[in-house]
Amino acid sequence: xxxxxxxxxxxxxxxxxxxxxxxxxAHSSGMIGFPLRLLARxxxxxxxxxxxxxxxxxxxxxxKILPPKARWLLCTAESMPMNRDVAFLALDEAQIGADxxxxxxxxxxxxxxxxxxxxxxLGSEALGGMVRTLMPKAEIIKRPRFSTLSYAGAKKLSRLxxxxxxxxxxxxxxxxxxxxxxxxxxxxxxxxxxxxxxxRNAQVAMFQAGEVDYLVATxxxxxxxxxxxxxxxxxxxxxxxxxxxxxLSISEMAQIAGRAGRHQRDGTFGSLGGEEMFRPExxxxxxxxxxxxxxxxxxxxxxxxxxxxxxxIAALEARPHRFELRAAPEAVDxxxxxxxxxxxxxxxxxxxxxxxxxxxxxxxxxxFRKVGxxxxxxxxxRIYRHLTExxxxxxxxxxxxxxxxxxxxxxxxxxxxxRIAAARTWAYIAHRADWLADPKxxxxxxxxxxxxxxxxxxxxxxxxxxxxxxxxxxxxxxxxPALLDVTVADDGVVSVEDEPIGRxxxxxxxxxxxxxxxxxxxxxxxxxxxxxxxxxxxxxxxxEAPDAEFALxxxxxxxxxxxxxxxxxxPGRTLMEPRVIPDPAIGLLGPVDRERVSQRIETWLASIxxxxxxxxxxxxxxxxxxxxxxxxxxxxxxxxxxxGSVERATVEGPLGALDADDRRILRAAGxxxxxxxxxxxxxxxxxxxxxxxxxxxxxxxxAMPALPAPGTTVTGAGAPLPGFRxxxxxxxRIDLVERIARALHDRRKARLPxxxxxxxxTSFGIDATTFTDILRACGFRAESGGHWVxxxxxxxxxxxxxxxxxxxxxLEDWAGRV
Length: 818
Fold this sequence. Notes:
Low-confidence stretches: 477-484, 814-818
Number of helices: 29
Distance between the termini: 134 Å
Helix content: 40-55%
Mean pLDDT: 86
Strand content: 15-25%
Shape: elongated
Structural class: alpha/beta
């Protein structure tokens, strides 16, 4: 029975490939040839899901999966086994027969590849004339597009709709557009024909899953790769075709633009940028699917004469006998063959048809690295030399060394892409059944190598061209905050959909410092909309927190909770009553939480001050009590204001007016009336001293002075410290000064000269100069011979008596009655 021949023609998204898959699966066996390895792999996975892995084979230049009982084969057009007997055979994208580089392969398959029961040619409607001329018995079926494709104009990158593909025509353009999308819209997946199927599938899966909303690709997406696209934007309408820079044909534009819209969902196309690229007649033709008829196909003898190298070249350069066919331009394999025809080794060995056929097989090694015929011919020559000597196999050691040289996953994107291209060369060789002694082993090794390199390349592409944080935010804009997966880690890192966007310190959110300026506002807005519950939770935790979780910090002066400043201090009514100013971020809390948090902070501060500065509070309370004698109040007020110590010289007048009862009150209060200072020794302990220093700095609106280590009694000069008195280049704690003064007075006799014991200074840990300064400050004067005499300190004149008001007598009488 004669095979049924059908040509299914129409634009993209007409279901041609889907129809061919259905028809093939309905037959007992079948084979489909595709233009791309990526497309063959995609359909292979679909058919495996229908028929099972043991029944389906995949044959491409670099990959061969051929179970012993495989009845359905998916191949690239170049790899279709022409001697394979199958019930059904189809050729996809047959209009590629008009391509100068690969067209002769598709033309040969159209003319000679047949299924036993049914043959199907799939292609553009522009191929109809060629089908009628070359295959007059073929039944032509035209299929309309399922959805509408319309022109959307030129759009800037920032206005591209989601689920868009941007098509560029060089790796440099693809990378540049992808980088711009990363900055503006969070990133893009990248698809190029040079990518391995594993890398391409990983990138497409990222796009299909919605991890990114944009895809940047070369024109490889025009060859039937099915993706969920709404819009296709052309970054340019010109490409270098290997010979010259030219404008895309209308058919090429339509093939790419037709990727937009799937099944019955409409799609749009346009250009990228502010200027229109398409001409009106091009837009009209693409929208109405009207393309110029293909007037000729490229042809080359598919079964050339191999009796000699000269005969082989002549057959490959022969012209077709039909007007509709044109001789194919010189391809890389023919260019390599011509160069090797003059090589002495080839001349010597290619003397028999078997050796000539072997040479032509070697010339068929694709130039995956794109190094050009001259350089590629050297690789082919070496392979042919190995194939024609010894056992006729490529040496295992040499092949293994070449693979090992590529087994490195470091480097940048171009470096990894170069290694993958080289790995494809060795994968192609490994899948030639008679080129290696153990082809199955090396096929598995090259496949594993390509997988490792592909995974590394996918990772590099994602790291470079995808900013997951921005992508998440762009995708979530407008979404209900309650539906978003916002998390705050124990260390305060805030993440949306597992992507860190900033940090929550206390109640203040800080954008991730690595974020670009353009996305900071989005990050801040996203966080502030989604953190009220976390802030409320933290407010409750602060209110219930034990005192140990709070601390009074010195730089900057403020109150910290769990290490984060939640309030600052400002001068208040008195030294012990500073104003507590909550951190501005606390203002983001609700009114109730804000009040509770502020009250808890103030309560803690009051508690800590009262616990460590109780003597100071007692001074203030006693000094403000009307029942305290006025002369005592006159001393306690400056003492409280000074933080528990005051220079004696500044209060000499009130001090001289004290009577015995007044002094008993001061002693009962724990005050020491020293030679140079009045002070409470309890406030000279490390923690009270630190708190007093903090309060004094707040009162003076000054920076906190650097305090000496706890227990230090002598320190260097610097900012005046509470509880210390300066002597030249040293500051000495006032209770130590008082001990020295008392020891000196114990050693002197009346006003007689005496020599101070140097051991006294040493015992207190002070140097001779500071000791001399203390002697002078305490009223001692130096005389000749190293003797000192006490002459007392000059005392200020007593204040003049102020006439008492008669009202004071009345008040005094009233106080006595009370």
